[in-house]
Structure formats: structure tokens, C-alpha cells
């Protein structure tokens, strides 16, 4: 196994804490679609990262972030997202490591399980205070939308162009969300049982509110996102059981999630350092 160890937090020692509000924010922006290639991107951001970790050069960030991106067959979206997200987070003076969790073809997509695997594997590789779970097709449009964790889980992607820049529905907790390491562990992560499209994010909301948390949101103005146009993915068809599963979300919470992943799904995973991100490839076998 090709494991590598992330540098310890102390390494940024000597620097004082970054200001609470980064002086480098630019406010509203547009998606930058000028990207040429992955190689070009590695070149462009070479000065910003070290062992896949990005951090401010002259101050110590407040939190150490892990951005978890579930992925399958969306290479152009991934390039576009990282090309926009890296400078965005750099203006936010974030200390961030990207993890792309790719499910290999074969079985139906299981986003909840991929998020859990991303969380568990990231914590084996480094120390993180805050997890940002990020859909690959959502590009943030205002760097005042600070990617940080707080006392309550945060829903970042409040105003997506596809939904006319407003919340898709009141209880939406999908797209881009942030939970502290402790919060995600406390809610037992995501359910592993949503195989196919839909419902796992609504289930996470049930888990979070069941533990007494509220959902934090910034204003729509700050929370704008572009969703990249795409057709529905093969191998991620709507899950016909999602409504039934959701009804029992709270009942299953303690026995379905981070603590049951080893028993409830069968998978192999490999880990690879891709310079700008850590790639965790997951082969799920639903039939075993
Ligand atoms: C909802 C889906 C979410 C999805 C949003 C936005 C369900 C559960 C049905 C009870 N929820 O309808 O998972 O993020 O649409 O597309 O399907």
C-alpha cells in the first residue's frame, strides 16, 4: 500500500494565527473555465502546496480542513472544481487537504459510504478539525462563503444557479456541507444504505437534528454556486427505496454509519498521492 504521511500541524509553528477575517477576500466571482489540463493545474499551483496540503505561507490557519469529494467518471468537473477551489481557499487562508473518493465502475454509486470512507481514511493520514463534503459539480462564487466549521453543521451550497440561486427546499442539506470532526463522528457519519441517487443528504439532516444541532447557513448572496450542467450518471439511478429508508433514518442512526461500514458494505480501497489531492479508489461489491 502506497501510504504517505501528512506533515504534522506543528510544522507551521513560528507563525502567529491568521486574522479571523482573511484580508485577501475578493467577494463575488465567476467560474474560471480557462483550465487547460491537469498538468497545467499542477504547475499553476505548485507554489501553494506541499504533500497535497495547501496552507497560508505567513500565518497559521485556524482550522485544518479536509475536503472530501465523492467521484466517479467526472474528470472534467473535478479539474474545473479544483481549478476554482484552490485559489478560493487560498484567499480564505485555509489549511486544506483534498481527498477525492472514487468509486470504481461495476456497482451502483453509494455516496454516503464514500463520504464515510473519505472521513475515516483522511483521519488515518492526518489531523483534521473540519470536514467539507463537496459535490464535484458545484463551484462556489463568493469567497466570503468561508469554508470553516463551527458550533453547528453548516450548509454552504444554499444558492445554486440550477435552483434560481435559492434553496431547493427548506430541508435541503446537500451539495456542500461542513461538519467538524467531532460532529461527524457524533452523528455516526452518513448512512451506508442509500445505493443510487437521492436521500442520503436528507438522512444526514435527520441525524444532525436528532443530535440537537441546527443547520447554519450564510446569506444567499454569499452562498452562490454554479452547478456544472450534466446528464444523469449511469450507475447512479434514483434509488427506489430512498423514501422508505428516510422514514427510519433516526431509528437506524446508531447502527448504520461510520461504526458499521466494515460490516454493511464490502469494499477494497487503494490510496494514491496525486500531488494536488489524495485519491482514494474504492471498489464496492454490493452482492457479497
Ligand atoms: C431531493 C433528494 C435529495 C437531493 C435533492 C436535490 C430524495 C429523498 C426523497 C424523499 N431527496 O429530492 O437527495 O439532493 O432532491 O436534487 O430523493
Automatic annotation (TrEMBL):
Domain Galactosyltransferase C-terminal: 154-231
Galactosyltransferase N-terminal domain: residues covered: 18-149
Top enzyme class: transferase
Chief place of localization: membrane
Enzyme Commission number(s) from the entry: 2.4.1.-
Highest taxon listed in the record's lineage: Eukaryota
Pathway(s) annotated for this protein in UniProt: Protein modification; protein glycosylation
Any Gene Ontology CC annotation: Golgi apparatus
Keywords: Glycoprotein, Glycosyltransferase, Membrane, Signal-anchor, Transferase, Transmembrane, Transmembrane helix
Coiled-coil intervals, chain numbering: none
Membrane topology, as annotated: Single-pass type II membrane protein
Subcellular location: Membrane
A molecular function GO annotation: galactosyltransferase activity
One GO biological process term: carbohydrate metabolic process
Chain's role: Catalyses the transfer of galactose onto proteins or lipids.
Family membership: Belongs to the glycosyltransferase 7 family.
Name the UniProt record assigns to this protein: Beta-1,4-galactosyltransferase
Organism of this sequence: Biomphalaria pfeifferi (Bloodfluke planorb)
Amino acid at each position: 500500500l502506497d501510504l504517505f504521511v501528512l506533515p504534522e500541524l506543528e510544522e507551521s509553528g513560528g507563525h502567529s494565527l491568521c486574522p479571523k477575517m482573511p484580508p485577501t477576500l475578493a467577494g463575488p466571482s465567476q467560474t474560471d473555465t480557462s483550465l487547460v489540463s491537469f498538468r497545467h493545474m499542477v504547475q499553476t499551483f505548485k507554489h501553494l502546496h506541499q504533500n497535497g496540503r495547501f496552507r497560508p505561507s505567513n500565518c497559521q490557519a485556524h482550522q485544518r480542513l479536509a475536503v472530501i469529494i465523492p467521484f466517479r467518471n467526472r474528470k472534467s468537473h473535478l479539474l474545473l472544481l479544483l481549478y476554482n477551489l484552490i485559489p478560493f481557499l487560498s484567499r480564505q487562508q485555509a489549511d486544506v487537504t483534498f481527498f477525492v473518493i472514487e468509486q470504481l465502475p461495476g456497482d451502483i454509486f453509494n455516496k454516503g459510504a464514500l463520504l464515510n470512507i473519505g472521513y475515516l481514511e483522511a483521519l488515518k493520514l492526518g489531523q483534521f478539525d473540519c470536514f467539507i463534503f463537496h459535490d464535484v459539480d458545484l463551484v462556489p462564487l463568493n469567497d466570503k462563503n468561508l469554508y470553516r466549521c463551527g458550533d453547528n453543521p453548516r450548509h454552504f451550497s444554499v444558492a445554486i444557479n440550477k435552483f434560481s440561486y435559492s434553496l431547493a427546499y427548506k430541508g435541503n442539506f446537500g451539495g456542500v456541507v461542513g461538519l467538524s470532526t467531532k460532529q461527524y463522528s457524533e452523528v455516526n457519519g452518513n448512512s451506508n444504505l442509500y445505493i443510487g441517487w437521492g436521500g442520503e443528504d436528507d438522512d444526514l439532516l435527520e441525524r444532525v437534528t436528532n443530535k440537537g444541532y441546527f443547520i447554519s447557513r450564510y446569506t444567499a448572496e454569499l452562498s452562490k454556486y454554479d452547478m456544472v450542467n450534466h446528464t444523469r450518471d449511469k450507475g447512479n439511478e434514483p434509488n427506489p427505496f430512498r423514501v422508505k429508508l428516510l422514514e427510519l433514518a433516526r431509528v437506524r442512526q446508531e447502527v448504520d454509519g461510520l461504526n458499521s461500514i466494515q460490516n454493511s458494505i464490502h469494499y477494497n480501497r487503494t490510496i494514491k498521492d496525486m500531488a494536488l489531492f489524495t485519491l482514494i479508489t474504492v471498489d464496492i461489491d454490493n452482492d457479497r
